[in-house]
Amino acid sequence: MIPLALTLLSQFLPSAPSLIGALIGPKAGQVAQDIVSAAETITGVKGDDAVSALKSSPALLAQYQATMASYQLEALKAELAAQTEVIVAETKSESWITRNWRPITMLTFTGLVVMYWIGWTAPNLTKEEVLSLLEIVKYGLSGYVVGRSAEKIAPSIASIFSRK
Asked: How does the average pLDDT of the chain come out, rounded?
């Protein structure tokens, strides 16, 4: 992301946020504006001079990279929080299908793999497709096992931290 940000800055600095916002969308335009603002804040100069200052000073570039890494971390945290909200909403749902679509999906993929092993499958299924199904099952089941284990031990770990 950092090299892309520098390239973007050096090519379109004054108009980058509005250009990106028009091409990709308002959220992308805001991200571009944040990138430009970070460069200008760190260097203390505006426009193309900010890019020149970053390129000429390893210390400023390192500070800029740290700022961009921090920005990226915050974006990942926000994404994880949004995903968590979706999962919590699904588990609290009153609808049976909403609460159980993930296990049903995993059982379906597992069934497809078992059917392949016993020979009840389409003859035109390639080895890559079969291996892809197996990967889905492997990741799904390992995620389920880890998730259930964490769910079981979470109360005891929480009680350890709450005693302090």
From this structure: 76
